[in-house]
Amino acid sequence: MKPAEKLLVDLGIADPQDIDLPAIALCVGAEVHYRRLVDCEAQIIGFRERAVIYVDDRVTKPRRRFSTGHELGHWYHDRGSSFVCRSDDIGKPIDERSKNAERVADAYAGDLILPPFMITPRLATLGDITLEGIAALSHDFSTSLTATAIRVIRMTRQPCVLVAQDLGGRRWQWPSIVCGTLKVRDDIDLRSSAATSLAGANKIGPARKEPAHYWFDRRHIEQFDVRVQSVRTSEGEALTLLRILDERMIEIYG
Length: 254
Known about the structure:
Helix 1 (about 5-10) runs parallel beside helix 4. This protein is α+β, with helices and mostly antiparallel strands. It is elongated and about 60 Å long. The strands form 2 sheets. It has a 5-stranded antiparallel beta sheet. The chain has 2 domains: about 5-115, Arc Repressor Mutant, subunit A (Orthogonal Bundle); about 115-254, 2-Layer Sandwich (Beta-Lactamase). It has helices spanning about 5-10, 20-25, 60-75, 100-115, 115-125, 130-140, 145-155, 195-200, 245-254, and strands at about 30-35, 40-45, 50-55, 85, 160-165, 170-175, 210, 225-230, 240-245.
């Protein structure tokens, strides 16, 4: 069990509604304040065994929660230190194995607000992963759709790839563990569901089958289809859940 999960267990927290971050922070020697900040989204001022955390009150509630967890991650890993974190420092979905201090703090935040020991039993009841199912989880845990989707993809063994795109192309992607090294193409195909979502409202689109070459730039991959569901996020990106329909595609290209 990871440190953030162990903290929750030690505090007797077993339900997502009880993950009260300011109260949890007090248990580890930190106070949390939400107020207007300039030139940063969150900061922690630590000295010896005490710290004060400030988080910008203008961001959404899910973002405030993640930013608070991020600063608590700094407090756990670098107790006594101070950090000033800009928006780009927090919640950047890249390689989870990174040892960069901001990514380590992100990992702690994810384990604190979306603890795997609470997510695992809920995944078992979801069946096939959909954006609607992920949205239901994000509501239960008061987390963003993006953060929740990343947690689900990291834990599932279903053949899925999560990708974020804008009109400039791919921003980032997370393949599930069974998808090997499948990599979404760098550009965005204007025939894809993602392009439709970028031009529309922030509403989850229906799942539909699309040719794999809309998404992957590999020789002869047009013989396969993928199931696709997209939504435009509050960050203005298209978040897409790709499901590989034929395991031969992973065998050949993964």
